[in-house]
Amino acid sequence: KPLTLQIIADDCHGSPYHLHRTFKRITMITPITYLENIRINYAKKQLTSSNQSIEIIGKMSGFPNPSHFSTTFKRHTGLSPNQFRKTIKKN
User: Fold this and answer.
1) Widest CA span in the chain
2) CA–CA separation, 65 vs 56, rounded Å?
3) Which phi and psi (to 5°) does residue 86 adopt?
4) How far is 35 from 20, CA to CA, in rounded Å?
5) How many other CB atoms sit within 10 Å of the CB of residue 70?
6) What is the pTM of this model?
7) 8 Å CB contact between 71 and 81
8) At 83, which CATH number?
9) Could you say which DSSP state residue 30 is in?
10) How many degrees, rounded to 5, is the angle at CA 49 between CA 46 and CA 53?
11) How many domains does one find in the chain?
12) DSSP calls for 32-69
């Protein structure tokens, strides 16, 4: 299910702007970066502990398509999901 700043703000009964500003002031990262970190950490666990396809792991992690998953994963880890899986299995 997609999760946006607007949905989170609505659940907190506030504005997206206020939520973003307050969250960043307290945590030093944006809510979207925080959510990406959680999704990438989940994907890393799945890549190391299962043989499911990268596409399925991306969907399970909350990414709308494999391309977005691969791009975000590489931005966070420096490796593509496939490279990450091969490196972990090698070690």
Assistant:
1) 48
2) 10
3) -65, -40
4) 12
5) 17
6) 0.87
7) no
8) 1.10.10.60
9) -
10) 55
11) 1
12) HHHHHHHHHHHHHHHHHH----HHHHHHHTT-SSHHHH
- Summarised one tens digit per residue, pLDDT across range 4-54 is 889 999 998 889 999 999 999 999 999 989 999 999 999 999 999 999 999
Running DSSP on this structure, what letter comes out for residue 13? T
Q: What is the pLDDT of residues 47-73, one digit of tens each?
A: 999 999 999 999 999 999 999 999 999
Give the chain's radius of gyration (CA, Å): 15
Sign of CA dihedral 54, 60, 62, 64: positive
Domain containing 27 equals 5-90
Q: Which of 43, 56, 58, 55 is nearest to 88 (CA)?
A: 43
CA distance 46 to 52: 8
Q: At what angle do helices 31-49 and 16-27 cross, to 10 degrees?
A: 70
